[in-house]
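Quick bug: DUF4309 domain-containing protein output formatted oddly.
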Amino acid sequence: MKRFIYVAIAASMLVIGCSPGASEPVASKDTPSAGKQEQQPNPAPQDEGTKTEQGSEEAKEGNETTTDDAPNGSKIIIDGNFLKQLASNEINGFDIAIGMTKQEVIELYGRVIKEDYYDGGRYQAFENLSGGIVYFDGKNRVYAIDLAGEHLNQTNLNVIRQQLGTPVAQGQSMVDEKFDLYYEAGENSVFISAKDEHSPVEKIRIINKKMLDESPQD
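Here's what came back:
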C-alpha cells in the first residue's frame, strides 16, 4: 500500500517531469492562478440518468464496448498484447502512439480547440478527439495521453487484471481517491482509474516520463 501511495502521488508529477520533493514549476500567464483549485478536465460526456445504471451493469457483467461506441470509432484493446505493444510506444487498437508528432495528431483529429494546464503539465484537446487530452513534450511529441473509459474495449477491472496480469500496484489513490491499477510497459507508466474497485473504468492515463525528461515542455 505504501508503494501505491507513492505511485499515485508520482502520477501527477510525471506529467510535469519532476520527482517528489522537487520545486513547483514557475507559473506562466496561462497557468491557473495561485490559490485557485485546478479543475480536472472532464473529457467523458455522460448521459444523465443512464450513465450510472449502465456503468454498474457493465462493471458487474464485464461487458465489452464496441468500436462504434467510441467517440471517434477507435478503441484501445485491452488484451495480452496491450503491454507488449505499449513497450514499443504503440497503443493497441488506438491510432495515436507515444512519440507521435503534434502535426500527425492534427491530421488524425483536427485542430486544437483547447489548451490548458492540468497536474502542472500543458495539455491540448482536439476537435475530433472527444473524451481525450494529449500532452506534448518540447519537441512536440506525444509523451502522455488521458482517455475516457469510453475509449477502452473493456472497462471491467477484474477482466482487465485477467488480461494484463497482476499490476505493479493497485488501490485507492491518495491524490483523487479513485481506485487505480498501475502497470509499466517499457518506459511507459499506465494508470487505469475507476470510482472504486467495483465500478467501470473512468479513465486511462499513459505517460512516458523519459521523453519529458529529455525534452521538457516549453
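Actually, after a second look the formatting is fine. The chain is about 25% helix and 25% strand. Closing.
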